[in-house]
Amino acid sequence: MKPNILLIEDDEGSRFGFMRYLSKAGYFVREASCLSEAMRAVLAQRFDAVLLDLNLPDGNGLDWIIELRENYQYVPIIVITGHGDVPVAVEAMRRGADNFLTKPVNMEDLEVFLRKSLELGTLRRRCLANERLERKDSIYFGESDAIRKVIDLASLAAKTDSSVLFMGETGAGKGVLARWLHDNSVRSSAPFVDVNCSNLKGDLLASELFGHAKGSFTNAVQDRQGLIEIADGGTLFLDEISDMDPGVQAQFLKVIEDRQYRRLGEVRVRRSEFRLICATNRDLLEETQKGNFRKDLYFRVNVLLIAIPPLRERPEDIPGLVLSIFRNLGFSSQGISPQIVKMLQGYSWPGNIRELRNVLERAILFAHGKPLAPEHFSSLDSSKLLVQQQKNLRDIEYDYIQTVMTRSGGDTRKAAESLHISRATLYRKLKKCKTDR
Q: Is the predicted pLDDT of residue 392 greater than 60, yes or no?
C-alpha cells in the first residue's frame, strides 16, 4: 500500500517538482496551494504524512501546526522553509512538527526524511494502541472464562488490521465489542462507521455504502459520500452481514480485494483504506452452503472469527453486568437482594444483554425509588426460566455440541478435536440428536 502524502506548497514550480519526484518514488500525493485547501483535504481523507510550507497566501502554516497535531496525533509533519527562516522552523518543531527542510530542497534528503517520518508515525500509532489496551476500560464484559477468551481474542485483533467476524445471538454485545475493538486499535482517532445490513436492501444498501453521483437515479439531487468513503482510515462495521443482498455482496467483495470502489453513476475510481469488522447472528458457513452468502466473501470477512457466548451460558457474569448497568443508569445497586440475583441467573435471556438492560431499566421504573423486589421483574417470561435439571442427558449433550460447533465456526474438524471425539462420531451424534428432537 502506497503512503498517502499531503503536499502544501504555494509555488507552482516547486509543487510540480515535489509531485513528480514523490510520485515516481511510490507515494500517492495530494497537493494544496494554501491553508484553506489543506484544511479541506485533511477533512476529506486520511494522510500518512504532511509536507508543509510555512509562508502561504492565506496564512502562516506555523499557526496550523498545533491544531493539526491535536487532531492527528501520529501523522508526521515535515516543514519546508527558506534559509533565513531556520529559527521559525525550530519554533514549528516546538509546536509539533517532526522535522524541517530548507529550500532549495534536495530530493534525496526529502525521501530519507519522509521515510524516517513514516516510521515514526507507525511507532506512534503502536504506542497509542498499547496505551489504550493497557488502560482499564469502563465497559464491563464479564469475568467468566468464556468471555475472557473473547476479550483476549479482541485484544489480539486490536493490534492488527485483519478483518474480524463476530458471531453471536442478537443482543449478545457484538456491536459494543466491535466499537471497543476500534477504540483500542491504532485507528481509534479515525471514524467508526456502523452499517446494519438488515435495515437496508438492494440499491439502498449499495447507495449507502458506495455513495452516488448527482443524477444517478431519480432522487439523487446531489453528490453523496458513501459510508466506505467516510470510513477511510478508520473502521467499517457491517452488522448482520448475512442479510446483505447477493448483488451487493459481489460489489463489496471487489472493494475488500482492491480497496477501490466507484460511487453509483460515477466512473471515477476512489480508494478507501478501512479496517473491516463484521457481525452476524447466523452461521455464515451454513449460509454459504445454502447459497445465501458468497463463499469467496465468507473467506474474506472470516480472517479472525470471535464467537460471543450467549448470556445463558455464563450466568456467573450476571451479577457484575447488573452492577455495571445500574451504574450506567445512575441507580444505586445496594438494594438488590441475592434472591433477585438468583432469579436473574435462572432466566434464559433470549435477548441476552440487551434484554437484561431493558428488564433492569423497567424494574427501576416500577420500583419508584424503593429497593427492588421480585414483583418489579414481572416482565420476565416465566416460560423462559431455566430448569436445567429437567433436561435429559441427550438434550444437554446436543446443546453442548452445538455450542462447540458455533465456537469452531462450523468447522467439524476443530469441533471434533475440542470434544475429543472423531469426526465420524460427531456426525453420528448430530444426526441422532436431530432425529430424536
A: no
The domain tally of the chain equals 4
Residues 238, 331 within the same domain: no
382 shares its domain with 393: no
Query: 335 pLDDT band (50/70/90 cuts)?
Result: low
Distances in whole angstroms, Cα of residue 301 to Cα of each of 7, 33, 298, 374, 408 = 35, 40, 5, 44, 16
pTM of the model: 0.61
Integer CA distances (angstroms), 265 to 207, 215, 230, 232, 350, in order: 10, 8, 18, 21, 43
Question: What's the one-letter identity of residue 324?
Answer: S
Using only C-alpha atoms, the chain has a radius of gyration, in whole angstroms, of 27
Query: CA–CA distance from 40 to each of 69, 190, 240 (Å)?
Result: 16, 16, 34
Q: What is the C-alpha to C-alpha distance for residues 268 and 393, in angstroms, rounded to an integer?
A: 61
Give the pairing of strands 224-225 and 211-212.
antiparallel
Which SS3 state, helix, strand or coil, does residue 244 take?
A: coil
327 and 253 inside one domain: no
In this prediction, residue 120 carries a pLDDT of: 77
**Residue whose entry in the numeric block shows the C-alpha cell 472464562:** 145
Question: Residue-wise over 367-382: b if at least 16 C-beta within 10 A, else e?
Answer: eeeeebeeebbeebee
The single residue listed with the C-alpha cell 508515525 is: 121
Answer for the pair 272, 263: CB distance below 8 angstroms, yes or no: no
CATH number at residue 299: 3.40.50.300
- Rounded to the nearest 10°, the torsion over CA 262, 268, 269, 270 is -80
Domain ranges, residue 398: 389-436
Q: Are 165 and 302 in contact (CB under 8 A)?
A: yes
Among 51, 46, 33, CA closest to 114: 51
Query: Are residues 373 and 430 both part of a single domain?
Result: no
Which residues does 199 contact at the CB level (< 8 Å), separation at least 6? none
